[in-house]
Amino acid sequence: MEIIRTYTLYLNSHQATIGGTSNNCTFNITPAITLTNLANRFLVSIPFMEVPYSFNQLNSSYNTLGYTFTDSSGTFNSTITINVGNYNITQFISAFITALTKDIKILRPAWVAANISIVYDSSTGLCTFIMNVSPASITLKFSANYVMSLMFGFSQTNQVFSNSIVLTSVNKVLANPINSIFLRSDTLKFETSFEAVVAPYSQADILARVPVTTLPNSWLYYRSEHKQLLSNTDITTINLYWSDNINPLYILDLVGLPFGLQMSFEEVQIRPNNSYKDKLNRQVPVAVPKKLVQARDRILQELMDEKDKLEKEIEEEKTKAIVDAQSS
């Protein structure tokens, strides 16, 4: 694979041409980056990037939880809302109890926070829900909130606790479920990149996976030599947006802070002796039988040998004609 040309872009989301936020923005590329030969391809890479850890682990897609409350006065269904933000498990427990108590008091004015306790055991990493009043029970509808179930250490199923049922999480708590964020682009066409989203195996638009290895309100620094093959024949615009490892369909909110990156495009010649076989629009790579490949290569070699032989004969004839002209 021979590199024909290299183009390097230094981009900052604050200077994007289209789009007012760093969550989803577009750059116009002028002049456009265009293949010099349609048989060639582009390789794209992100050698360096810096991203603010300004996003919330608990965002607006997952900060509500439905529940059912039952006591001697009857049963009601309601929903609590916890402020978006970043929490450790102790802070999250406190915010959860506050929100739940406040909501229950609307229909049960005598209800107090002490009626519920959630105990975190740092040695096991588990949470235990305890009801301190009788008769009462609460069903937490984790089946509709995957993130909150992870944060408390449960599977995505509804959970019940009461004065007679002590509820302990089955998994260790995970107060920070976002362990990586993904830079994506819907203008770059990744020919050989796939991911499992709503189908088991589908085309991906991921430019880079950035691990979350630091604390909130700091910077994530990313370096990579990974390159991806594109089917674009020219690059006139570049759209960039973010998602996380929890929900690839949710656009991650960087809360207004910009990110910067270096992006490299390399125009490469895939097969110098067989470039006309490349297909830019091929959607799914299919394995070619080895015998066919060998037969193709043998025929191509024969054609190249014949071409070399004819070119040599032409040069010899030209030389002979020059010598004859000079001697006459």
Uncertain parts: none
Tell me the CATH topology of the largest domain: Jelly Rolls
Strand content: 35-45%
Structural class: alpha+beta
The largest pleated sheet is described as:
5 strands, antiparallel
Shape: elongated
Oligomer state equals: single chain
How many β-strand stretches?
Answer: 19
The gyration radius over C-alpha positions equals 31 Å
SS field, number of helical segments: 3
Describe this structure in words.
- The chain has 328 residues and is an alpha+beta fold.
- The chain folds into 3 domains: 2-55 and 178-277, Jelly Rolls (Sandwich); 64-168, no CATH class; 287-328.
- It is built from 3 helices and 19 strands.
- The strands form 5 sheets. Strands 1, 4, 16, 17 and 19 form a 5-stranded antiparallel sheet that branches. The protein has a 5-stranded antiparallel sheet with strand order 2-3-18-12-15, with no helix packed on it. A 4-stranded antiparallel sheet has the order 6-5-9-10, with helices on one face.
- Strand 13 (194-195) and strand 14 (202-203) form a beta hairpin.
- The radius of gyration is 31 Å and the shape is elongated.
- It starts with a strand and ends with a helix.
- The mean pLDDT is 89.
Features:
19 strands; about 35% strand; about 325 residues; single chain; 5-stranded antiparallel beta sheet; alpha+beta; Jelly Rolls; 3 helices; 3 domains
Brief account:
The protein is α+β, with helices and mostly antiparallel strands and 328 residues long. It has helices at 89-107, 146-152, 290-327, and strands at residues 2-12, 18-21, 24-34, 41-52, 64-71, 74-81, 116-121, 126-131, 136-140, 159-162, 167-168, 180-184, 194-195, 202-203, 206-211, 219-223, 227-230, 234-244, 260-269.
